[in-house]
Fold this sequence. Notes:
Elements: H1 2-11, H2 13-16, H3 23-28, H4 42-55, H5 58-63, H6 65-85, H7 91-108, H8 117-133, H9 138-141, H10 153-185, H11 198-207
Helix pairs in contact: 6-7, 8-10
Amino acid sequence: SPDAAREVLKTHEAAFLDRPKLTAVHRLTYGGQDFSFSPYGPYWRFMKRACVHELLAGRTLDRLRHVRREEVSRLVGSLSRSAADGAPVDVDAVLMGVTGDVISRMVMSRRWTGDDSATEEMRSVVAETAEITGMFNLQDYIGVFKHWDVQGLGKRIDAVHRKFDAMMERILTARDAERQWRRKEAADGAGEGDKKDLLDMLFDMHED
């Protein structure tokens, strides 16, 4: 009813703003330090400003438009070749792949569907993370199990978290070294901004 909606969305809005602190999500996001699960407050407002005005701003999407065009062009070319050969196409897998490639290239300038070991590791960690965060965990719903890992999910969460940390450490270290090399190569820095992906923007925000 309108009265009930008013109670939830206006009168007691603050009590309903935050998402549940699920064990897996809380641990994998360093205590809810991401944008989706951080509690409402100054940090969340800062993250919202960073996403809306920097990472996902119109100028950023325009600058990375070539990525989306190239990946769609690759998709159309692949479908055309399959059609010419009379080969069947798994449309769901193809669309998931092109979506992953677009996002991955916009974020860190590499394709999601590569066949190298680093890309395979990234897909594996993301798949494990999605599986664990989607599983029913007794610790989240039954108080007596809060500090008792009867399902063994805690060990799996810790293992995935270590893999994720190691992977991110390699990615960030490599990008930091690449940025330093670019700065040395480009004396005046002209044109460097056109090559920036979202990871570069996050480095810039961190340095500012």
